[in-house]
Amino acid sequence: MSEWLVLTIAMASACAVVLTTAVLSNRRIADDDDPSQTPDVIEYMTMMIGVVYAIVLGLAIAGVWEGRSAAQESVRMEAQALHEVSARSAVYPVEVRDRIRKDVDAYVAHVVGAEWKSMTDDGNLTEEGTRLLDRVRADVTEYKPRTDHEGQAYQPLVDQVAAADDARGSRGQNAGATMPGVVWFGLITGAVVTVGLIFTLQIRRTFRELLLAGLFSVLIAFLLFLIWDFDAPFGRGISATTAPFVDLFPRATGG
Length: 255
What we know:
Keywords: Membrane, Transmembrane, Transmembrane helix. This is Integral membrane protein. InterPro entries: DUF4239. Pfam families: Bestrophin-like. The structure is a single chain. By secondary structure, this protein is mainly alpha-helical. It is built from 9 helices and no strands. It has helices at about 5-25, 40-90, 95-120, 125-140, 150-175, 180-195, 205-230, 245-250, 250-255. Helix 2 packs parallel to helix 7. The longest helix is centred in the first third of the chain and has 49 residues, at about 40-90. The protein is elongated, with a radius of gyration of 27 Å. The two termini are about 30 Å apart. About 25% of the residues are buried.
């Protein structure tokens, strides 16, 4: 099921529930009921709870967006480090340089293909990816420089492999959901309470009041969907992409 379909169903369901409840509740109100007699304390409480929930939603959205940005940054750093390894190996003999570049391309192709799918589906890195990166490290560290120029390039190459490994670890940590279950419980409960409180203001069956109630519920549903979509940095529609690998390694990724 696509994210857009999930969003449409969530928003339509929230709107339908609120409007149906408003219409049914209105039938129980006596003809002589005066909605202007709503106690001021109820209006105050409704406003304050809405403000508090809006702050919570804002913090949740900021948190999941920061997680998504961190995930994309880890991808960029990993791709850049591997690109540096491939480029700086030019000072090595042809057979060594070609072996390093070949193993780097094999690792990148695996990340963009199989490992990315594994992160999307299961939230985990693959053992094959670890093996391929270890092979790149072995290519770099096991070579003994023969000239001063090669010796000067050796340590930076080792450092770039270490940077790629560190970025890969960060990518793996960001692969799963970032929002704890207790936070989701609070967000959903807060949404129910916030939407439910609008019925204490005695919504009438006028077009304007029903429209505002429906739009309010749709907005809450959309914001919750936005948090859910950002909550898996590699797994849903608005997620981190393989663009850094594709841009820097077009031959390995088929770009």
